TrEMBL record:
<dbReference type="InterPro" id="IPR019734">
    <property type="entry name" value="TPR_rpt"/>
</dbReference>
<feature type="repeat" description="TPR">
    <location>
        <begin position="219"/>
        <end position="252"/>
    </location>
</feature>
<keyword id="KW-0802">TPR repeat</keyword>
<dbReference type="InterPro" id="IPR050754">
    <property type="entry name" value="FKBP4/5/8-like"/>
</dbReference>
<protein>
    <submittedName>
        <fullName>Uncharacterized protein</fullName>
    </submittedName>
</protein>
<dbReference type="InterPro" id="IPR011990">
    <property type="entry name" value="TPR-like_helical_dom_sf"/>
</dbReference>
Length: 281
């Protein structure tokens, strides 16, 4: 039995039942043919908790690294440690709203796999598609209010985008290039949304500024950067962003409410500052 503690706070144990062959293990993007079986006690779990692993007990194809559920994340991380034709038992602790600290047991048979090119040697089409897949899965976690997982996948999407930037696109990639700016804008904005929730205001400002360098009128980035400036009591910069966002997208309730609140906070700050200055004279 081997215990794996991975950098993204994933901890699991893997017991090899039947060793595999080959010197290599699959990497992110590999197309893996697998059979997934749960232990008898775990079949009672709601299928929505692992719907990207269905159907169980049958041969399925998994695009390694692209998951949309927590349980699937463990399976994907385990597969990265496996060899072709290996059969292993995966164990990890899982908690949900209904079950606290439940131990999940899954049997994974990696029948075969086709390794994917490493990120630095991928085609432009694959870089774009992989970035888009990670963003779509991150959106699912964000809507479920699992902001930590969402942030990780948004950041992974950004890694592919940055490699995309380093490539030299040709005319045949015009369709991808048309969508590229919108994708990178949304990634920067969505990363900042996660950071705003955790109060990482300086990082919010940095990422929104990166988005605004591409499109100075991107309303979501203006709103979130303004929100972060307000959190840091930099009301004048906050108002500058929020007023511009309000001009571009009038009658938006969120923008108008934050704009009103920020103006009130600036007035209160100026009054307090004025009283403090009087004490010096």
């Amino acid at each position: 039995m081997t215990v794996y503690n991975l950098p993204d706070d994933i901890t699991f144990t893997k017991t090899i039942i039947e060793p595999g062959q080959s010197l290599y293990a699959p990497n992110e993007g590999s197309n893996c043919k697998v059979i997934i079986k749960f232990s008898p006690t775990d079949y009672a779990l709601n299928e929505n908790l692992y719907n990207d692993l269905l159907p169980l007990n049958e041969e399925i194809n998994i695009n390694l690294g692209f998951y949309s559920t927590i349980i699937s994340n463990y399976v994907h991380k385990c597969l990265i440690t496996m060899k072709q034709n290996e059969l292993s038992q995966l164990n990890f602790n899982y908690s949900s709203n209904l079950n606290e600290n439940q131990t999940i047991t899954i049997f994974i048979h990696l029948i075969s796999f086709e390794r994917c090119p490493e990120i630095y040697s991928m085609s432009i089409d694959n870089l774009y598609n992989f970035a888009l897949k990670h963003k779509e899965n991150a959106n699912k976690f964000f809507h479920e209010k699992n902001y930590f997982q969402a942030f990780k996948l948004y950041h992974r999407s950004l890694c592919y985008i940055l490699n995309f930037i380093n490539e030299q696109p040709t005319d045949e990639h015009n369709q991808i290039l048309e969508n590229f700016n919108q994708l990178i804008l949304s990634i920067y904005s969505n990363i900042s949304a996660c950071q705003l929730i955790y109060g990482n205001n300086l990082n919010v400002i940095e990422n929104c500024s990166s988005a605004l360098e591409i499109n100075p009128k991107y309303v979501k980035a203006l709103y979130r950067r303004g929100y972060a400036y307000a959190n840091l009591n930099d009301y004048e910069l906050a108002l500058k962003d929020l007023q511009l966002a309000n001009n571009i997208q009038p009658n938006d309730e969120k923008i108008e409410n934050l704009l009103k609140t920020t103006k009130q906070r600036l007035e209160e700050y100026n009054k307090t500052l004025g009283k403090s200055l009087k004490n010096f004279f």
